[in-house]
Amino acid sequence: MYVSHVITRLIVGGAQENTISTVLGLHEKPGIKVDLISGPTSTTSPEGSLERTLDVVPGILHIEPNLVRQISPLREVLAYQNLKRRFKETRPDIVHTHSGKAGIIGRMAAYAAGVPCIIHGIHGPSFGPFQGAVSNKVFLTAEKMAGRITDHFVGVADAMCQQYLDAGIGTSGQYSTIYSGFDLSAFLAAKQSPELRSQYGIQPGDFVVGKIARLFELKGHDQIFDVFPEMVKKIPNIKLLLVGGGPFRERFEVQLNEMGLRDRVVFTGLVPPTEVPGLVGIMDVLVHLSQREGLPRALPQAMAAGKPVLSLNLDGAPEVCITDETGYLLMGDVPKELVQSLVSLKNDAELRNRLGEQGRVLVKKRFAVSTMVDAVEQLYRRLKETSDSFKSTKK
User: Fold this and answer.
1) Intra-chain end-to-end CA distance of the chain, in Å
2) Range 258-266, long-range pairs (CB < 8 A, 24+ positions)
3) What local confidence, expressed as pLDDT, does residue 390 receive?
């Protein structure tokens, strides 16, 4: 069985890490040939690049230079033509697309090339209230069109599958949830390292609230900063550890300086994925307030390290952030609940440990990379066997 994956770009991010882990895991499976087609990713980009992680298997990565994130009708036509030509030449049994632009162009090219089975991975919503009405209409229309030539959808959370179904895309039998697995070992081994804390200016008695996200819109940093003075008042030894880089850093630093709280916040900047487990290890709790996610990897990563988590009641987060079981889901007055939850966790080490251990149990069950790869392989084999019947259900 030959499978081609297609993604728009390989920046440092959850969807990209998921796709790379899937491709490398499938490469180890007997009877499966797999490759990954991606648009170019600049090594000097502030978002980073994961292309080099595929160097372990020479030839597995193919760069399509016209597959770029920016809107460019000419390059989109060229990307479509090149992908269609490649699929006709290589004749994959399955094309599995990821992300917005690659998801649309890749599926169209695979259909035109006569690929027997077309799958789309839903890592996060491409339409919804987080964007303007016009953009939302464009993306929703594009997803509905591409949905008509899609045999199966793989969501990283039940919520993602339901959102697409509610939008009128496909039928329930065309959806599977496969949680986004990752290498658990480094997170399970993460410790409160005094040396690493000292490296980032964190004192032994500091209560560290961590957040892993790009410094950009919709990631929820502003919601934290809005109540940060109150956090400091109620938790005098609080330290905010922001893991990630992005274009909003300067604005955030100005905002914190104006509040007189710059010294309470540590910006790590963009770090390679290999450094994330150590940084999670020196946190006491992780907060995730992103307003657009599939199922944020930061939540299960923190849970694997035994940390309680706080999250908005959004997308796939409720499937792992369970109130009084693995952390606290913020469902009503978010600013008030955020401060109250942090105060409760700060004042009760036993509670933090209990929530952290229960989170570990959940993650071990659902998020091992081997569990994800095995589930993807089983899905592929089932769909390959029944590809003709799936084709007959297309509209």
Assistant:
1) 26
2) 259/225, 259/228, 259/229, 261/228, 261/229, 261/232, 264/228, 264/232, 264/238, 264/239, 264/240, 265/239, 265/240, 266/200, 266/201, 266/202, 266/239, 266/240, 266/241, 266/242
3) 47
Which residues of the chain, if any, have pLDDT below 50? 390, 392, 394-395
pLDDT in tens, 235-260: 999 999 999 999 999 999 999 999 99
Q: Is 2 helix (H, G, I), strand (E, B) or coil?
A: strand
Distances (CA, A) of 64 to 7, 41, 105, 126: 10, 10, 12, 22
Q: For residue 259, how many other CB atoms are within 10 A of its CB?
A: 14
The matching CATH number, chosen from 3.40.50.2000, 3.30.70.580, 1.20.1420.30, 3.60.15.10, for 2-181+368-392 is: 3.40.50.2000
Q: So what's the architecture of 185-366 in CATH?
A: 3-Layer(aba) Sandwich (3.40)
Whose tokens are 């920016």? That residue is 70
The two tokens of residue 207 are 């209560």
Q: 323-357 in b/e burial notation, b at 16+ Cβ within 10 A?
A: bebbbbbbeeebeebbbebbeebbeeeeebeebbe
Write out the residue limits of the CATH 3.40.50.2000 domain(s) in the chain.
2-181+368-392, 185-366
Tell me how many degrees the CA angle 283-288-294 measures, rounded to the nearest 5: 130
Residue 9 phi/psi, 5-degree rounding, is: -160, 160
* Phi, then psi, of 102 in degrees rounded to 5: -60, -30
What is d(CA 22, CA 119) in angstroms, rounded to the nearest whole number? 14
Q: Report angle CA 342, 348, 352 to the nearest 5 degrees.
A: 75
Q: In angstroms, rounded to a whole number, what is the distance separating the alpha carbons of residues 315 and 293?
A: 6
Per residue in 346-363, pLDDT tens?
Answer: 999 999 999 999 999 999
